[in-house]
Write a structure and sequence with these properties.
The complex is a heterodimer of chains A (319) and B (528). Chain A has 319 residues and is an all-alpha fold. Chain A has 15 helices and no strands. Chain A has helices at 3-32, 38-43, 49-59, 65-77, 91-126, 131-145, 148-162, 178-184, 186-212, 215-223, 227-256, 259-264, 270-279, 283-311, 313-316. With 528 residues, chain B is of the alpha+beta class. Chain B has 18 helices and 19 strands. Chain B has helices spanning 2-13, 19-28, 33-47, 76-85, 133-144, 180-183, 248-256, 271-276, 305-313, 317-324, 354-364, 382-395, 410-414, 431-438, 453-464, 468-485, 514-517, 520-523, and strands spanning 54-59, 90-92, 98-100, 103-108, 114-119, 159-165, 168-173, 209-215, 219-224, 239-244, 262-263, 281-295, 329-331, 370-374, 400-404, 420-425, 488-500, 504-505, 525-526. In chain B, strands 1, 8, 9, 10, 11, 12, 13, 16 and 17 form a 9-stranded mixed beta sheet that branches. Chain B is globular. The chains are: A mainly alpha (319), B alpha+beta (528). Chain A binds chain B through residues 35-37, 40-46, 48-51, 54-55, 58, 84, 86-89, 94, 98, 153, 156-157, 160-161, 164, 167-169, 171, 173, 263-266, 268, 272-273, 276-277, 279-280, 282, and chain B through 58, 63-67, 74, 146-151, 153-154, 201, 213, 215-219, 243-247, 249-250, 253-254, 256-260, 408-409, 411-412, 415, 444.
Chain lengths: 319, 528
C-alpha cells in the first residue's frame, strides 16, 4: 500500500461524511414538511381537544426548526438518537434490536445469494448461449420479474401451509435458540435471495463477457488455457470492480428495501419499525432510521469504490 | 338423533373422533356444519376447562409504538393484552349485563348521583402488593385529571369527586347517571398500583397473566399469575402469547399452519375460503360497531330534513351488506343503536325506496349534486360502498359526487369537519354512552352536528332514571328522533369475524368485541 491509495480512500470517506451531513439536512427538512399533526396522530380518532393541547405542550413542538435540527445533530454525533414521541422510549435501545434483526436476515440472504449469483454468472459465461446459460438466465429473470410479495405468498402456501416444513411467521426474539431462528427465517431469506439473485448474476455475466472480448483473453485461448482457467485467472479479476458495485447495491437493498418482505413474514426488522412510526408522525424515529439507512447506503458505496480502486492497477499506481 | 350427536361430540372432545369425521357424520344426520361445530364446543365446555399449555393469538392492530400504559391504548393489540394483565372495577358480560371484577358490589343513591363501589378484598397485584381502595381512586384520578392524555378522559368529565371510604370507593357526579358503572367498564380504566402514577407503563395489574415479555409491534407474552383471585374462573393456559400479524394473508396462513390458535379480523371476502381449510372454525358475532354516512344537520344543503330523508331512503342496505360485508353484517336503521344494546326497542325498519327518496328530494328543492367525501380508512370497503351508494341514489334521481380523500389525515381533516363523509363507530356499552359521545349537542364528536335541545333533555332524563321501563321508552323516542330527523345514515352493523384453530375449546360468542371481547386467550383452553 502506498500513500496515493490511502489519499484516495481518505477522500472517498471524507466525501461520504459530507454527503451524510447533507442527507441529514434533507431528512430533517423532509420530516418538517410532512403534513398532519404529531399530537393528532398519536391520539388518533379518539383525541379530545384538551388531550391534544396537553400532548403538544409536552412534546415541545413550539421551538423553531433550526434549533431542533442542531440539538438533534448534536445528539446523533454523541450516539443519542433521541426519544420516541409515541412511546417515550429511548430510540437507540428500541432501534438496536431491530437493526440487528435486519442485519441478521440480510446477512443470511447475502451469504447464500452472493456466491450463488457469482457462481451462476461464471457458469453462464462458461456455457454462454447454450442451454445452461439460457436456463440460468431464464430462471433468474423470472424470479426477479415476480413481485416479492407474490413469491412470499407462494412460498407460504407451499412450504408453510401445505407441507408445513417452515413457519410462515418469522417472529424472532431474544433468547430464541439459534437453529430455531435460522429455521424461522428460511422463507423470507429465500424470497430475498430470489429477488437479488438475477441482478448480480446478470451483471457478473455481462462484466466477464465484456472482458472476454479483450486481446489478452484471446492470447490465453491461443496458448491453450482451458475455458475455466481463462475465466478464473484472467477474466474474473479484471471484472471484479463492476461486480463488487452491483453486489454492494444489492446488499444495501437487503438492508433498506425489505419492508414488504418483513410485513408478509411478520419479521421484526427496521422496515416495519419505520412504517409504524411514520404512521404515528414519530419524527425522531423517522429521522434516526432515515439516517441509518442513508449511512448504510453511503457506507456500502464507499466500500465498492475503495474495492474498485484496490482492484484496478491503474488507480492503484497513478502516474 | 340428538343422542347420537351428543355421543359423537363427546368422542371428538376426548379425541377419539376427528372434527372432520364428526362433521361428516353430523351432515349425514342432517345437521348443518355450524350447528355441529357448536355441539362440539358445548361438549368441550361441559367437560370443563383444562389447565396448561400455551395459547397463541395472531392479531392485527399492533404497532412498534404501543405502550403498556392503559391511558395510551387505542388499537387492538395493546388493549387485548391489557385484558390479560389488568382488570377494571366492572365489565360488560357477553349478555350485556354488568359483571363484577375488582368491585364486589355497586350501589347508587336514589338520585343516581352518588355511586359506591365495594372493592374486592384479598386481591393481589403482580408485584405482591394488595389492592386497596386508594389504588382505585388514584387510577380514576389519573384518567380524569385535566392534564390527562387518557383515551378515557371524555368519559370522566361528569365526575365531581372520587373518594376512598373504608373498603369502598365513592364517586359523586355533577349530573345524575344511571349508567355510571358501565363507564367504569372502559378498557383504559385498568386498576394499577397507585393508579400507575409512579410508572404508568410498568404493566403491573391484577389480571390472570403477568407480563412476561412485551415487545411492542412484535409479540406480547403473559405467564399465569399464581396469586390471581379468580383462578378457577379464567386463565386456563399456562402461557398466552399475542403475535402481531398485521398482514391479513400472513394471519390466515399462520392459523392454517398451526403457528397460532386464533386470529382476529378475517376479511369478509375471504371467509368462505378460510372456512374450507381443515381444522379452522369461523367465529362471527354481530356487534355494536357500525359504518355510517354522516351529514351535518346544521350545514347547507344538509340542514334540510327532506334532503336527509331522501338520502336515507336512497340507501340500499341489503346490497351493501351483501357486497361490502359479504353477508357478515346486519342492517342499520339510521341510528347508532342495534339489538346488541341493553334497553333496545326494535323500530320499524327503513328500506330502500327510490320513489320515496325522489319524493323527499323534490320536496327539499335541492338541485345539482351532493358531495360525499370518503376514504379507504373510513371503514373497510368505504370507497366501494360510496360508489354503490352513488348508484342507488341515481335510481332516485339524486346525483352524488364522490371525493376520495387521502387516508392520511382523514380523521383530522375530513371526519367531523366536512359536511358529508363516511365514517365508522365502534360501539359503546350503553345507549346513553353512545348518544353522549356522538349525539349530545355539547359532545366533541357530535359528527352529525345534531344540536337538539329536546334530545339533550331526554338524554339527561334517561341518565337519571333508575326505572327500566321508563328508560326503554325514553331511548325508543330518542332513536325515533334520530332515525327520522338525524344526520346519520347507518347502512349496516358489521360482524366481528374471528377464526380459531383445532386446539381451541371453550369459545363463547361475545358481542363486546373481537376475540370474545378480548378475553379469548384467558377464557379458552387447549382441547385435550
Amino acid at each position: 500500500m502506498n500513500s496515493p491509495v490511502l489519499k484516495l480512500i481518505a477522500q472517498r470517506v471524507a466525501l461520504g461524511i459530507l454527503l451524510l451531513l447533507a442527507v441529514s439536512v434533507l431528512i430533517f427538512a423532509g420530516t418538517q414538511i410532512l403534513p398532519g399533526d404529531v399530537a393528532q396522530s398519536i391520539l388518533g380518532q379518539s383525541a379530545t381537544p384538551v388531550a391534544l393541547e396537553n400532548l403538544r405542550r409536552d412534546l415541545g413542538l413550539d421551538q423553531p426548526a433550526y434549533v431542533r435540527y442542531f440539538s438533534w445533530l448534536g445528539g446523533v454525533l454523541t450516539g443519542d438518537l433521541g426519544t420516541s414521541l409515541a412511546t417515550r422510549q429511548d430510540i437507540t435501545t428500541t432501534l438496536m434490536p431491530r437493526l440487528w434483526n435486519t442485519l441478521f436476515l440480510a446477512f443470511w440472504a447475502a451469504i447464500v445469494s452472493v456466491p450463488l449469483a457469482i457462481i451462476l454468472g461464471l457458469l453462464a459465461v462458461r456455457y454462454r448461449n447454450g442451454p445452461i446459460d439460457k436456463l440460468i438466465s431464464g430462471f433468474a429473470l423470472a424470479s426477479t420479474s415476480l413481485p416479492e410479495f407474490f413469491i412470499g405468498y407462494l412460498l407460504i402456501l407451499f412450504f408453510a401451509v401445505q407441507l408445513q416444513w417452515f413457519p410462515s411467521i418469522s417472529t424472532i426474539y431474544d433468547g430464541m435458540p439459534f437453529l430455531t431462528k435460522l429455521n424461522a427465517i428460511v422463507l423470507p431469506a429465500t424470497v430475498l435471495v430470489l429477488v437479488v439473485l438475477a441482478h448480480m448474476m446478470r451483471m457478473t455475466r455481462a462484466a466477464i463477457l465484456n472482458v472476454m472480448q479483450s486481446a489478452y483473453v484471446e492470447t490465453a485461448e491461443l496458448k491453450g488455457v482451458s475455458q475455466f482457467d481463462i475465466i478464473r485467472k484472467h477474466a474474473f479479476p479484471n471484472a471484479v470492480a463492476p461486480i463488487i458495485n452491483v453486489v454492494m447495491l444489492n446488499l444495501a437493498f437487503l438492508i433498506v428495501g425489505v419492508v414488504v418482505v418483513e410485513v408478509i413474514f411478520v419479521y421484526p426488522g427496521m422496515g416495519q419499525y419505520l412504517v409504524d412510526h411514520v404512521a404515528k408522525r414519530d419524527v425522531p424515529v423517522v429521522q434516526a432510521v432515515g439516517l441509518i439507512f442513508a449511512a448504510v447506503y453511503i457506507g456500502l458505496n464507499i466500500v465498492a469504490d475503495v474495492a474498485g480502486i484496490l482492484t484496478n492497477p491503474r488507480l492503484r499506481h497513478p502516474k | 338423533m340428538s343422542r347420537e350427536l351428543d355421543f359423537l361430540s363427546n368422542y371428538v372432545v376426548s379425541g377419539k373422533l376427528s372434527r372432520r369425521d364428526f362433521l361428516g357424520r353430523a351432515a349425514a344426520l342432517g345437521v348443518s356444519a355450524t350447528m355441529a361445530n357448536s355441539l362440539i364446543s358445548t361438549a368441550a365446555r361441559a367437560q370443563g376447562p383444562i389447565k396448561g399449555g400455551t395459547l397463541k393469538a395472531g392479531m392485527v392492530g399492533g404497532e412498534a409504538t404501543n405502550s403498556l400504559d392503559p391511558a395510551s391504548w387505542q388499537s387492538q393489540v395493546p388493549y387485548k393484552f391489557g385484558r390479560m394483565w389488568g382488570e377494571q372495577l366492572v365489565e360488560v358480560s357477553p349478555t350485556g349485563e354488568l359483571e363484577m371484577k375488582l368491585a364486589e358490589e355497586v350501589s347508587a343513591s336514589d338520585d343516581a348521583k352518588v355511586w359506591t363501589f365495594k372493592i374486592r378484598k384479598g386481591v393481589q397485584f403482580h408485584n405482591g402488593k394488595e389492592l386497596t381502595p386508594d389504588d382505585v381512586v388514584a387510577t380514576l384520578e389519573r384518567h380524569s385529571n385535566a392534564d390527562s392524555k387518557s383515551g378515557a378522559l371524555g368519559l370522566m368529565g361528569e365526575i365531581d369527586t372520587i373518594k376512598a371510604d373504608g373498603g369502598n370507593v365513592v364517586i359523586s357526579l355533577k349530573e345524575a347517571d344511571a349508567d355510571l358503572p358501565f363507564l367504569m367498564t372502559d378498557y383504559h380504566l385498568m386498576i394499577q398500583p397507585n393508579g400507575g402514577k409512579d410508572n404508568p407503563g410498568e404493566g403491573i395489574g391484577t389480571g390472570p397473566y403477568k407480563v412476561a415479555e412485551n415487545q411492542p409491534g412484535v409479540r406480547h407474552v403473559g405467564q399465569r399469575f399464581d396469586g390471581y383471585w379468580n383462578k378457577d374462573g379464567i386463565g386456563h393456559a399456562d402461557t398466552i402469547e399475542i403475535i402481531v400479524i398485521n398482514d391479513a394473508t400472513a394471519r390466515t396462513a399462520a392459523l392454517q399452519g398451526g403457528q397460532v390458535d386464533m386470529i382476529n379480523r378475517v376479511e369478509p371476502k375471504i371467509v368462505e375460503l378460510v372456512k374450507r381449510a381443515p381444522g379452522v372454525t369461523i367465529r362471527n358475532v354481530s356487534g355494536k360497531g357500525h359504518y355510517v354516512f354522516i351529514a351535518h344537520c346544521n350545514t347547507a344543503p344538509f340542514d334540510n330534513n327532506d334532503l336527509r330523508l331522501a338520502l336515507k331512503y336512497a340507501m340500499d342496505r341489503e346490497e351493501l351488506i351483501q357486497k361490502i360485508l359479504m353477508g357478515y353484517g346486519t342492517v342499520g336503521n339510521d341510528t347508532p343503536i342495534n339489538a346488541a344494546y341493553p334497553l333496545f326497542t326494535q323500530l320499524e325498519q327503513r328500506k330502500f325506496d327510490p320513489e320515496k327518496a325522489a319524493e323527499h328530494y323534490k320536496k327539499s328543492g335541492h338541485t345539482g349534486s351532493v358531495l360525499l367525501r370518503t376514504s379507504d380508512v373510513a371503514f373497510p370497503g368505504a370507497v366501494d360502498a360510496a360508489q354503490l351508494y352513488q348508484q342507488s341514489c341515481a335510481k332516485a334521481g339524486i346525483k352524488v359526487e364522490i371525493k376520495r380523500e387521502p387516508g392520511d389525515g382523514y380523521w383530522s381533516e375530513v371526519w367531523n369537519k366536512q359536511p358529508f363523509s363516511t365514517s365508522y363507530w365502534g360501539g359503546r356499552p350503553t345507549q346513553n354512552q353512545m348518544f353522549t359521545t356522538a349525539y349530545y349537542s355539547k359532545a366533541d364528536w357530535n359528527d352529525t352536528r345534531w344540536l337538539r335541545e329536546d334530545f339533550d333533555k331526554l338524554l339527561i332524563q334517561g341518565r337519571a332514571e333508575l326505572d327500566t321501563a321508563k328508560r326503554v321508552e325514553i331511548y325508543k323516542t330518542m332513536n325515533e328522533m334520530l332515525r327520522d330527523e338525524g344526520g346519520v345514515i347507518t347502512p349496516m352493523f358489521n360482524d366481528f369475524i374471528d377464526a380459531t384453530g383445532k386446539r381451541v375449546a371453550g369459545w363463547e360468542n361475545d358481542p363486546n368485541g373481537e376475540l370474545m371481547g378480548g378475553y379469548a386467550l384467558a377464557k379458552c383452553w387447549i382441547a385435550a
